Amino acid sequence: MDFAYSPRLADLKQRAADLTAKIIPYEDECERHNGLSPEAHTAIRQEVLASGLQAINTPTVYGGAGLTVLEQVVVQDELGKLTNALWDTVWRPANPLIHATPEQRERYLIPGARGERRDAVAITEPDAGSDPSAIATTAVPDRDGYVIDGEKWFVTVGDVADFLIVLAQVPGAGPTMFLVDADTPGVRIKQVPRFTHTFVYEHPEFEFTGVRVGADAVLGGSGFLGQGYELTRDWFTEERLMIGARTIGAAERALTLATDWARQRVQGGVPLIDRQLIQAMIADSVVDIATNRAFTHQVAWEFDQASRPDPSTRKTLHAKAATVKLAASEASNRVADRCQQIFGGRGYIRDYPVERLWRELRVDRIWEGTSEIQRLVIANEARKRGLDGLLSFRTRG
Ligand SMILES: Cc1cc2nc3c(=O)[nH]c(=O)nc-3n(C[C@H](O)[C@H](O)[C@H](O)COP(=O)(O)OP(=O)(O)OC[C@H]3O[C@@H](n4cnc5c(N)ncnc54)[C@H](O)[C@@H]3O)c2cc1C
Question: By the 8 A CB rule, do 80 and 246 touch?
Answer without folding.
Answer: yes
